[in-house]
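note to self — DONT lose this again. spent like an hour looking for the file last time. sequence + predicted structure for the chain T wanted, 323 res
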Amino acid sequence: MEMKDLVSIRDFSPEEIEYLLFLSRQIKAHPSAYRDALQGKTLALIFEKPSLRTRVSFDVGIHQLGGFCINLAPAEINLGKRESIHDVARNLERMVQGIVLRTFSHEIVEEMAACCDIPVINGLTDCSHPCQAMADYLTICEIKGRVKGIKIAFVGDSNNVAHSLLFGSAQLGAEIRIASPPSYEPRPQAIAWALQRASQTGGIVDVTNDPRAAVAGADIVYTDVWTSMGQESEAPERRQVFRPYQVNAELFALAKPDAVFMHCLPAHRGEEVMPDIIDSAHSVVFQQAENRLHVQKAILIELMKHMQLEGLRPAQAEELVTV
C-alpha cells in the first residue's frame, strides 16, 4: 500500500481495501504472528470526543503489535487554540510514528495529515468514520462470505458512519440503500462520489426517504443513533423526525430471512432500534465491535511499518549538521 494516511475510505483503491480486509482476517486468525510487527513504535491518540471502542481498540491494538501509545487529552493540547494544528503535527512527527485523531471537524484531520510526514488516522469526524466502516465490511465478509453484491440498508441519520458505509459500498461493489428523513440525507458531494465509483465497481447506490423500500430484501440492516455527539440540543426534535425510521420487528421483517442487524454503538434501545432486534440472534453488533481491533491492527501495520523510530528523517539530520 502506497498511502500515508487514513482520512477517508475514498482515499483507498478497491484493491487496497480488499487487501486490508484480507490482512485483518489473517491477524484475527493468527494474532501471535504479528506481535512484533510494530516493535518499539509509538502511536499518539488525540481524542477531542468521548470514545470507548476507538480508544480501546487502538490502545490494545498497538500494544499487541509490540508498540505502545500515549493518550493526549483535549485539555493537554487544546488543538488549534493553545497551539496550532501545524505546530502540533510538526512536533509529534519527531517523537511518534503515527497519530489517531478523533475530532469534530473533518478539516482538522485533513490539515493534520497535510502538515506532517507520519501517518494520520481518522478516528471519527463530523462526516467520516473510516475505521468503523472497515470493521463493518470485515464483519459482512465473515457472515456473508463477500461484500460485492450484498444489499445493505442504512436507516436513520446520514451521519459520519453512513458516509463511510456509502464510500465503502461503492468501492467494493455492494448495493447500499440509505433511508433518511428529508434534510437528513447524505451530503450531495458524497452521493456524487459514490455514484461515480459504483459505476466502476458494479455497485448500486440508492438514497430514499422511505425506510421500508430501503430494507425490503436487504441482507444487512444497519442503523445508528439519531442524535450524535454535539447535537444534543436537537434531540427532542430528532426523536420526532426519526420515529418512522426506528428498526423494529415490523421493519426488520421486510429484510431477507437470514438478514443481520448492525449498529456501530453506542445504541439507544427503544429509540433507533428496539431491544428485540439488537438483542436477537440476528444481531452482530458485538462482532462488529471486536472487529474494530483486528481491522485497526491491519491499518496500523500497513501505515506505520515503514516509519523510522528516530524523530528526525535523514534529510533533516543532514541539514542540521551543515548549519
